[in-house]
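(Structure overview)
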Amino acid sequence: KVLEKGGPEEKEYRQLDEIFQVLSEDLRKGLLNPEEIELFHKSLFGEGMEDSLHGHCQLKPYGYAGDFMIIDKMYRQQVTDNPRFRKWDMFWNNHAAVKAVRNRKDYFIHTLRAHLQSKRPLRLLNVASGPARDLSELYAQINPASLQTTCIEADSHAIGYARELTKEYEEQVNFVHKNVFRYQDTAQYDVVWSAGLFDYFEDKLFIKLLKKLVSWAAPGGEVIVGNFNTHNPSRQYMELIGDWYLHHRSAEELTELAIQAGIDRERIHVGSEPEAINLFLHIRV
């Protein structure tokens, strides 16, 4: 019925999410096979799906899930002009996890502005900086000269997009096209921030990179790492429909990983955005 009328109405969102949850559980239990899910995707969207947020996730035009463009589309609550997919994009943007990603941008801005109250100029290292819309909005609210930013990003397309968004602040923002595991830096930063990278890593890589980020933080500085919480009501939907898989972790698990990375417990704090879906591991250096 939903397909016949071109997507769900708001009153149907909850029931549709419950259906996706059942399908996801059936796939996990082996009651559905990947071929059946692929057939389901084709019947759900099919030709022209590249115009939609769901289609972007399915088609992965930049080769990986959660690319800079889908993040920026979520920041902007983009809804396609294609009437076939408008209701589906509205459904996507209503999800708790998507709201949490939008909140992540606000969390970044609030956190950096708080740091700027105590120290200017401030040096920021932004790891896997993506579209940099958060940076662009931050700089629009502050004296640009008070913040010097280095962005490490492995995707050259993301850098090109981010440079355009932040071109007004090109004297303050430097982009480095590098895989963070191969990146070397002798500089030290007041804030080392990575919003959406660590929940793609197994624990071993998480710990390895966290140690590296801590080594780049100046004494008195702070490392802040984002990660999706184990409480994520959108998880089944993200995985089944978006083909978007993350390592979800609780506040306790994030704390334990930081301890395994050699951080004293008293220097660890875990914050969250209002949906409590995106957590933020804070480490004082």
User: Anything to note?
Assistant: The first helix runs from residue 13 to 29. The chain has eleven helices and seven strands. The two ends are 55 Å apart (CA to CA). The chain has a mean pLDDT of 94.
